[in-house]
Amino acid sequence: MTANSNSAQLSDRIIMRDAKWFADEVRHGRGLSFAADLIEKQSSRIDDLTIRLNKSEFIAARLKGWLALAALGIMFAILAACAAPIPIPAAQMQTGAQAMPPMGYIAMCAETDCAPIPVTAPTKLNSAKWTELNAINDAVNRLPKIPDTALDVWQPAATRGGDCEDLALEKQQRLIAAGWPSGDLLLATARTFSGEGHAVLIVRTDRGDLVLDDINWAIVTMQDAPYVWRSMQAPGFMKWAAIK
Ligand SMILES: [Ca+2]
Question: Distance from the CA of 189 to the center of ligand 1, in angstroms?
């Protein structure tokens, strides 16, 4: 086998592998911005590959690479145009006994005025609301991910970014500013499949309790999210309840 055919096969394998990876990531709901990251990575891989090729191979590989990127770009545009469907209706999650709020939340409320959570009817989800929910979820998820250091600090991510609870708080604030009832926007805590603590924003709708998450960008019902639920905000001042 010639060096040219080896290089061509290597290039083909890289492009095919990335196309499959791209499809998997989208299928698992990592969000469309993930596709942009992938296109960047694909581009740098092609750069790495072309360093090892001679001039004619370089031109051929570069052309093939850009064609592959164009194909990914078209896929990206099609997926962007086809927003995920509104979830099928699911039951509201049930909560039980009052639970201790997370320490970081208590500390935040000691420094700022945490507004009481009112009792509101679940938001009626229509196409416009669904689009707005996805837009705010995606926009906040694109902010820089900044882990806490020593302390579990809860503060809205604003534009500087933050970790899971900070992003959930930011989504809560942006949705309230957009006119969503605060009684339907509830912070919740969970354990991931690897046992790590996690926080998300729950949105109570007539389609069920929806999860706005910075790990899985696709908005799903709490029943469909791969977490062991622990507690969530409840009506009242600084009230949290255990999730059954
Ligand atoms: Ca934090």
Answer: 13
